[in-house]
User: Fold this.
Amino acid sequence: MESSPITPIIYNISMPTSPKTSIKGLDFTGISVIFFCHDGKGNYLLAKRSRQARDEKGCWDVGGGGLEFGDSLEDTIKREIKEEYDLEILDYEFLGFREVHRQTAGRTSHWLALDFKVLVDPGKAKINEPHKFDELGWFSRENFPQPLHSQLPFALKKYQAKL
Assistant:
């Protein structure tokens, strides 16, 4: 029996000439990489969100950023920690994930948060995005400053055995 050659089917998909601007987390599910930077001695780096921050102004939070199309998780962690704190990663481990649904600017947002514990050199941390953060500090879990970002208590409870 003869086999016939396989002819690929090519689809010509045209993009709209004026694409709608979509917002991660609002118009589609966003993927965020969240990092619990630590010094290896039980202290965690928290940043106080500035008045210019997108939301939860004045709240203390761990770091995070959105996964960009084509970037690996490791590249995203490295880029975001460098952008926010001017730090290099010494080591990291995946903690788990969380689905985050919350109200933002009167709209419901939906994020898939991929959470990592990241070892960094505490002596080199600095605010690298002053428009987003007012203060940085190293804190033990028992002494986290208040108020905390609304999602941080959920993550701390979920990962209490791993942090």
Q: What stands out?
A: The mean pLDDT is 90. Helices lie at 73-85, 152-158. The chain has two helices and seven strands. The domain at 32-158 is CATH 3.90.79.10 (Nucleoside Triphosphate Pyrophosphohydrolase).
